[in-house]
């Protein structure tokens, strides 16, 4: 089968999309990628055996997607680009990553008679609702949650197949009137064949908590720092790896709470350096703020931490809490309850828990939460 994927960003990198492409190529499908070109992208027109078609789109045009339902110029640009590809290459299926370009996918289905697969990495209406750029004066004017929810409801029903990342997302899409046999769970699990990472020996005596990822308000790190401030007399360290627009405010908060000596901001790190920092710590943090978005998505790093037998301290986002309870891989707390979080951290620091008792996720990853399982679900989509 000849498949055209649509991605509303530059490519590569994207771990999930790369995994999906490799699986489809292994099965003998031909895969093309239509995506956005940025100044940083090379002129390379292939990713392995995947043919890349890049469309120049300036930053303003890219950000205008939030208002695409009111001002359809964004769709017009993509429609012209994709139609040219469809006319030139005669695809059998169009695979749309995330909700934004679902309209284009459906239009190509109607015009060319191709299969339309909608691959929802996120709960897009909920993500837009909590995003900082929709809370600005202009953003609040351009963004309509109701419009995006109606758009989603329409196109998940019109798609031939819908892919989601977690069971909670499948339940949500079913509630929009989509038959369960049309929805496939392809999660953000780890490809174990590509995860040959040696766990470093611990090089410190104090208890170390580490967060790795983007740094925004909705990652919930402000609650971690406020909890840490209650434990100032204890011997521990917090390492924060990553970058983002909320970094300056977090650094200011650490200073205001007088915990700069316990909180270390390590900046952006490449994959191997990041994993080394996390794996040589005692506890991995996933403190995301609970919302309709985080209750129906799942981070890749959860499965990496479980596989590495790293105890996880996480907020009570539904999929994360479910998996940690199932696997015994860590602790959860109410996302904004600073006192509860501080209490668990104190118990960990004072060794009231044996960390090895909360490092039980590897077996679940080996048998259930891994890419070999999820890729079988993806292949069902194209049977």
Automatic annotation (TrEMBL):
<feature type="domain" description="Glycosyltransferase subfamily 4-like N-terminal">
    <location>
        <begin position="17"/>
        <end position="190"/>
    </location>
</feature>
<feature type="domain" description="Glycosyl transferase family 1">
    <location>
        <begin position="194"/>
        <end position="359"/>
    </location>
</feature>
<protein>
    <submittedName>
        <fullName>Glycosyltransferase involved in cell wall bisynthesis</fullName>
    </submittedName>
</protein>
<keyword id="KW-0808">Transferase</keyword>
<dbReference type="InterPro" id="IPR050194">
    <property type="entry name" value="Glycosyltransferase_grp1"/>
</dbReference>
<dbReference type="InterPro" id="IPR001296">
    <property type="entry name" value="Glyco_trans_1"/>
</dbReference>
<dbReference type="Pfam" id="PF00534">
    <property type="entry name" value="Glycos_transf_1"/>
</dbReference>
<dbReference type="Pfam" id="PF13439">
    <property type="entry name" value="Glyco_transf_4"/>
</dbReference>
<dbReference type="GO" id="GO:0016757">
    <property type="term" value="F:glycosyltransferase activity"/>
</dbReference>
<dbReference type="InterPro" id="IPR028098">
    <property type="entry name" value="Glyco_trans_4-like_N"/>
</dbReference>
């Amino acid at each position: 089968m000849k498949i055209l994927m649509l991605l509303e960003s530059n490519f590569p990198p994207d771990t999930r999309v790369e995994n999906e492409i490799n699986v489809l190529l292994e099965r003998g499908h031909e895969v093309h990628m239509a995506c956005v070109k940025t100044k940083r992208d090379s002129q390379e027109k292939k990713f392995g055996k995947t043919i890349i078609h890049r469309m120049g789109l300036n930053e303003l045009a890219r950000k205008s997607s939030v208002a695409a339902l009111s001002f359809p110029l964004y769709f017009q640009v993509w429609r012209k680009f994709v139609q040219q590809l469809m006319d030139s290459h005669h695809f059998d299926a169009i695979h749309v990553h995330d909700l934004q370009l679902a309209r284009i996918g459906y239009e190509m289905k109607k015009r060319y008679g191709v299969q339309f697969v909608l691959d929802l990495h996120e709960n897009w209406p909920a993500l837009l609702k909590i995003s900082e750029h929709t809370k600005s004066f202009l953003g609040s004017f351009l963004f309509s949650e109701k419009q995006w929810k109606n758009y989603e409801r329409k196109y998940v029903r019109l798609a031939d197949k819908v892919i989601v990342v977690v069971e909670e997302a499948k339940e949500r899409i079913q509630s929009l009137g989509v038959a369960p046999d049309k929805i496939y769970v392809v999660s953000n699990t780890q490809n174990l064949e590509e995860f040959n990472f040696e766990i470093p020996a611990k090089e410190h005596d104090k208890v170390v908590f580490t967060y790795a990822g983007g740094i925004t308000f909705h990652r919930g790190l402000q609650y971690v720092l406020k909890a840490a401030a209650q434990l100032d007399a204890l011997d521990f360290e917090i390492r924060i790896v990553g970058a983002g627009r909320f970094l300056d405010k977090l650094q200011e908060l650490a200073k205001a709470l007088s915990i700069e000596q316990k909180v270390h901001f390590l900046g952006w790190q490449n994959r191997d350096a990041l994993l080394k920092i996390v794996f040589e710590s005692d506890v991995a943090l996933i403190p995301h703020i609970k919302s309709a978005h985080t209750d129906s998505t799942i981070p890749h790093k959860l499965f990496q931490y479980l596989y590495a037998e790293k105890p996880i301290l996480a907020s009570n986002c539904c999929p994360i809490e479910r998996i940690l309870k199932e696997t015994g891989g860590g602790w959860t707390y109410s996302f904004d309850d600073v006192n509860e979080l501080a209490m668990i951290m104190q118990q960990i620091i004072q060794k009231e828990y044996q960390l090895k008792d909360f490092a039980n996720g590897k077996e679940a990853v080996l048998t259930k939460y891994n890419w070999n399982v999820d890729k079988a679900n993806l292949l069902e989509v194209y049977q």
